[in-house]
UniProtKB/TrEMBL annotation:
Alcohol dehydrogenase-like N-terminal domain boundaries: 26-97
The name this protein goes by in its record: Zinc-binding dehydrogenase
PANTHER family (alphabetical): D-GULOSIDE 3-DEHYDROGENASE, NAD-DEPENDENT ALCOHOL DEHYDROGENASE
Cofactor: Zn(2+)
Amino acid sequence: MKAKAVVFTDRNTVSFQEVDCPDPAADQVLVRVTHSWISNGTEGSYLRGERVDGDTPWRPGDPHPFPIVAGYQKVGIVEWVGAQVDDLKVGDRVFASIGKIDGMFEPRGGHVSPSVCPRAAVLKLPEGVDPLAFSGLVLTQVGYNAGIRPRLKPGDGAIVVGDGLVGQWTAQMLASRGAKVVLVGRHADRLAYFKQGVTLLEAGGKWVEEVARLFPEGAQVAVDTVGSIELMDRLQGLLRRFAHLVSAGFYGPDDQLQLQPPRYKELCIDLVSGATPERLAETMELVANGTLDTLSLITHRFPVDKAAEAWKLIETKSEPVMGVILDWGVE
């Protein structure tokens, strides 16, 4: 069958074009996409040729991952259900992650419609909430995962470095659990979105001294969402004994962390990645009840056929940008 998709045809080259998809099978669902949410970080590293798969960095000698259908998250309307699917029906509003695609570097992608989806990749949306709130659910779930994994008690200190989407949702999740959260970032406009705790604008190394002043006995949680081994090393000095160091970034080929230093304080290291149906469902509930806020983080919407313009904005940062939605013209 034929579909439309956002395709990275080469490094820094974005096309909206027709693609081939397999016909849906009896255990699959066909979804007509209404909106898809760009993952600025993950998709951007694919577009620049820095990844060859999920969390696998490109290294010299590897093939470049082109052409590839970008993305992994969207919302839409069920258009067809296979005979083996008995818990969804035509017309249901759903979230979907990946869809099946032929003729690409990977046989799957996100920004494609109609999307041939495995049943496990589809979640029915709750009623009474704007579907757009769930269109970035996989990425929101990364923030949920980073914020739910560490052990903490109300009042414990938590440091989140990175003021992008994952950093925002991680900070929201930790704050909802009662942590005293410090969000560290480089962008005053982004930091202004986080109103549940302390925010710090990074300037040289001064934020380290300020965090140490705020948590004189050490924080219980420190989360790196930007992907820096140097930062992971620095954060260890701000933690107390038996604390949690959380990695929620992409480190590329420079990903070697020394394990002896964390042993001095017996730190736990949580490595968060990917998504599970259970975590997606839990994240969806938290979005629905307002614990996790997504809609206020959407700064730009583009018609899907203008996806190249969306990516030009994301890559050049010609104006402040956070959540970017592609509108497929379907209601």
